[in-house]
Amino acid sequence: MLREQFVNEVAEKMRNGMCDLFVGSGMSAPSKLPTWSSFLQPYLQEIGIQPTEKDNLPLPAQYIVNKNVGNRNIICDAVYNTFGKDYPLNQYHVAISNFPVKAVWTTNYDCLLEKALQDRKVRVISSEDDLLHPHDSTDVEVIKLHGCAKTAAHGIVLTQADYDCFLDDKPKLSQKLRESFINKSLFFIGYSYHDP
């Protein structure tokens, strides 16, 4: 498929409400957020593991939690303190804010997408409970599949066990994601081919 044809087809699907964005950490990296491996680095050094960007990074997070006898607080607090800061928007967020989409899915903990879309009527969904509460009509939903730094202590997806149990532990979010996969096209941006 030619690049121009691809761009035209994606743009047409977005205009018709038939394409959702799926945004990875590559979109937040230019705002100086740490990569997952650099974020985990100090905790992994304590247990003698040297991560790389190609690692299955939920597994090292699992090692950290296991070393702390199942206590997730050390990492959850660090997620809150690191990814919950007010980072500046970058050119990618500005571009995303102009996309005519109804839903933006992300695995990022930061709040940059919400910030970028603040001129639109945004509904942020970062937990199962968010899907239970009634809401006013919105222009766009930001669905944070792994949770949000602002509420990091409450059910963020962090470890290998969290990934393995996602479908069972988060059935409403899982169903919403299935519906998007079935009914729409998803345009993935900011993800590495190494990301599991």
Summarize the structure.
The chain is α/β, with parallel strands linked by helices and 196 residues long. The protein has helices at 3-15, 36-46, 58-67, 73-83, 91-97, 112-116, 160-164, 166-169, 171-183, and strands spanning 19-23, 103-106, 122-125, 140-144, 185-189.
What descriptive keywords fit this protein?
40% helix; 9 helices; alpha/beta; 196 residues; five-stranded parallel beta sheet
How does this model look, in words?
The protein has 196 residues and is an alpha/beta fold. The protein has helices at residues 3-15, 36-46, 58-67, 73-83, 91-97, 112-116, 160-164, 166-169, 171-183, and strands at 19-23, 103-106, 122-125, 140-144, 185-189. The chain has a 5-stranded parallel β-sheet with strand order 3-4-2-1-5. The longest helix has 13 residues, at 3-15. The two termini are 26 Å apart.
Averaging pLDDT over every residue, what do you get? 89
Q: How many helices?
A: 9
Gross morphology is globular
Number of beta-strand segments = 5
Largest sheet: 5 strands, parallel
- Which strand order spans the largest sheet, edge to edge or round the barrel? 3-4-2-1-5
Uncertain segments are none
Structural class by SSE content: alpha/beta
Strand content: 5-15%
Distance between the termini: 26 Å
| Gyration radius over CA | 17 Å
Q: Share of helix among residues? A: 40-55%
Task: Write the SSE topology.
Elements: H1 3-15, E1 19-23, H2 36-46, H3 58-67, H4 73-83, H5 91-97, E2 103-106, H6 112-116, E3 122-125, E4 140-144, H7 160-164, H8 166-169, H9 171-183, E5 185-189
Parallel strand pairs: 1-2, 1-5, 2-4, 3-4
